[in-house]
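Submission sheet (multi-component)
Chains listed below:
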Amino acid sequence: MSSDPRDEIVQHLPALRAFSLSLTRNGAVADDMVQDTLVKAWSKIASFEPGTNMRAWLFTILRNTYYSNRRKAGREVSDAEGVFTESLSEKPAHDGRLQLADFRRAFVKLTDEQREALILVGAQGFSYEDAAETCGVAVGTIKSRVNRARARLTELLQLDDDDKLEMTDQATMAVVTGTSPSAR
Amino acid sequence: MGHTRSKDKDSEVIDENLKRVYQDMLDEKVPDRFLDLIAQLKSQDDTSTEGSAT
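Outcome: structure written.
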């Protein structure tokens, strides 16, 4: 094998930053984590097995760094609410835009472990096995974190009762009657 | 309304939003500082491993 696996690292930068931001919920902290990860990855490249999932390997370094810092600080980064949402540019108006902002607000309220599991499996498309290895836990643990994350989001977004349907009904009613639906 | 069906629907809504939020982050331009850092790490490497047969 003549090529340096490190040449591949640059391809994973967008995903690494996205994962970092999802985990830290803070743009500045997220980028510091990415920087640390790059330096560590560079020097620890011997521990990377060529042919295996480099993205997962980089994510592992990043999340280990993050949790180790969190342990030292003795708490989660707590000023997150709002920072995560503000650090992202809002897409121009489309249907469901408000819902997306609501989603971000709910998402930052999950625990670090829940956000991490949900992002890896639900957004990044990792298998439960890859996610489990990245997080250094059992597959069952990842599954339960993903389930709990979904359940919590459902609760926070109030998807679990008939609100969604009710809102649709109210909106329909508003169109029909010309009145605006009452604010929730 | 079947409960299971609405639960599936909830997961769908959640995953759809999750993917959009994540895609927004993926679409962000990578700051030059990271490309600079990689270039720097690379050049340090070239200097320190000079002469060694790898």
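Remark: The radius of gyration of chain B is 23 Å.
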